Structures
1.
Amino acid sequence: MARFSPELLRSIREFGSSLSAPQVSSGRMLTGAQPTTLGGILARNVGGLMGRDMRTPAEKLAEAQQGINLGTYEGQIAAAQARLKFETDPVKQQEIGKQIINLRNSQAQADRAAAAEARTVKQEKEKEERQAKVVSSLENAGASQIAAYVKDGTYTPSQGSQHLGSLIRVGKAAAESLESQQEIITALGYDKQKRFSFLFGEDAKPVSSEGLLKILVNKAEEEKEINKGVSRLKKMAPSANVTAAISFLEEGLMTPQQASAFATREDKMTVPKTGEFKLKDGTAVATSVVNGKLMYLDTTTGEFVEPTADNLLVPIVSEGKQVKITPQSRKSLENVLDVELGILDEAQIERHGLLSGKDTYTFNIAATHLADLRSKENNTPVEAEMTKAVIDLLDSEYYTSGESNTFSRDVPARFVMPETFSEFGISTTTETKPTVETTPVPLVKSIAERDDLPAGSKYRYVDSNGQEQTATKR
């Protein structure tokens, strides 16, 4: 029987006893290294014959760490634990133990941050879903402008829901008595608004239409928020942009949020004009020359944008000239739409009230234009023409609506500007061709710029009152 020397047996016992002990020749890596001395090779072979695991600690570690993803805290901890298992040096064991503790602390911190982020994402998603639900409900309830307030953050979803609740209460009150309508309007804080004076005067009378009362409440809520927005704008330093923002807000072309952002923009622009242009689709728009280019106000974003081939700007004209809306015609329109004056019946006022935002604006522009044109052609006061102008447009093909007797309509009320007003008995109205001013008459900002123009060239400039003027270079 073979006998082994004490030195060989000791070599077998101590083979690979330390993970950190040198076990490779110079220039080779520790992990998976094979013994290079004769004694080491002999010890490994004999130990294997005796049934011992003769792998080096580095080899055992390499196998234990196989498949571990070191790109995660879990993988780094598992790798450190494997190393600790095969490390026999007390100092290095302590270092690895500290490393594991630090990794676990970092993992816990990362887990907390990930959980917080997940909660935030979930809350934002729930908020967006709730906001979308409230917006949809408001639009279905005929409160399109309030829906726009919720959409852009002027109102929170809770405020939007509160308004929905108010509409439900209004619907119940409308079916009862004058006293119940007075009570709900007072409770909502609208009793001091002029539009509800017909409910509280000596000759007070209830609204017979639930739809109309809801429309009036929607308008009252809009007016309340518009007044707040105007008040904030008037506290800003006076500027052309602030003045324009107030006008756009009062016209319903901007939300309070959009108006505030517009008031602080730094674009160089002329005083915006209203009632002079429409888009190819028949929507009346406000226009301005911004940084030397003719642009129109996009009511969806509250920004001025350039016309394109698909969105042409078309002048609203009569007798070949753009028609201006006079303060007299504006006041006349307000009187016609006043419930207290009773010029229109409730159904007609309700149909007008179903319009919102740009459609209300387009209708009002069309009505004031038509009344002005008839006033000039018939040599009559504009007040005498306004009522018929409003009624004719409400009854025209240019006004379309969904189920106007309910507040769950799929198609909102819309109004588009007529191509011409000749079909309404205006003989002097002329057809106009779409125009896109891609290269408008240049806007000069200095005498030097004007002097650079060829003789006979037309140019635009802004006078001391902020008004845009056109002249010809001599």
Note: The chain has four domains: 6-102, 141-266, 275-437, 441-474.
2.
Amino acid sequence: MSSPLRCFSDYDELKSVIVGRSDGFRLPTLEYDILPDELQAATHAGLPESWTKSEDVATEHTLTFGVEYPAHLIAAANKGLDDLSKLLQGRGIEVLRPDPEGLKNQTAESGTRGHSSRDLMITIGDTLLIAPTPFRSRSREVDAIFSHIIADVKKGGGRVVDCRTEQYWQRAEGGPLCFLREDKTEKDQGTPLTEKLPLFDAANIIVLNEKTIVYQVSTTGNRAGAKYLEEELKRQGMSVVIFQYYKGAHIDSTILPLSRNKIIFCEGRVSLKEMKQLFEPHGYTDDAFIGFNFDDMSPIPIGLNAISSPWIGMNLLQIAPNVVVIEKDQVKVREKLQKHGVEVLDVTIPYTRDFAGALHCVTCPLKRQLIDNCQRNVRQRTADN
């Protein structure tokens, strides 16, 4: 029996993917989960000082908690996600969706449920990992809306590992500060999270190739999480490279590999020198690095909450080596990618800053076709010509 799971990179040919939904979306109240408030300031790192001090962004740091987003915002986001699903299905990719019943009757405690399916699950090699998210409000999200997918994966012979330990569930009962560092007793290791148990979002990880994952230590991932993954991935002969140049949240609006010979990065958060130090040992040469600056980002309208920074404009989905899907309004992103020989498809997904999720965030790949060296060389020669 062929396993329903196989992802040995973030860019090999996509075969099966989960696409999120936005029904009932809201930010949890601070009384239940304080992390979203801490997250916003961190994710705005690397923006030009002239922009962060302008009157135009004065309201960006005011968030509305506990209230369901207006119906027109949710409808617009869902249309974009439906259109993305159709685009992928049109290319022969299997698309799975959250359970709509699990998205009903949400409360101020349930948080940002459903939209960003990549945040809480990731397929690495032959295993689907359920992440021990530090967002208390999202701790049971997978069980509520993705259990039908997980059941089918297991039925098909797939290996699923739930990284939420007994200790995790015990601490989750401890209130809004339950996963934060105990300042008087714990050393600061570049994250506000405690190091007494593994904590990470799946979106802190990229699968670089069949031997390596890259793990970001940040507001949403601690060093204990990296150690946990090192042990878990030994059976597949994979290792963990730690990335800690940016203290915000997830890694996928900072760096993303497009293939074995191209990788994009956010120049406001990580330098070209740092990128070369990190990725040259993994085969990326001087012409592999595609940097994006703030001027490359098209403005993204805000409907209610500016959770994510404008850098989410470079958050894209890889569907094959050097073939990506971007948000349609990101014109300069498209132009720069095309200049580097990348094939670009697009779809309109509005209010990505409000929903804290663009193309990469809202998709959770389950299966990719590993392309062998012969196929890879033919495709590269075709792209070069």
Note: The first strand starts at residue 13 and ends at 19.
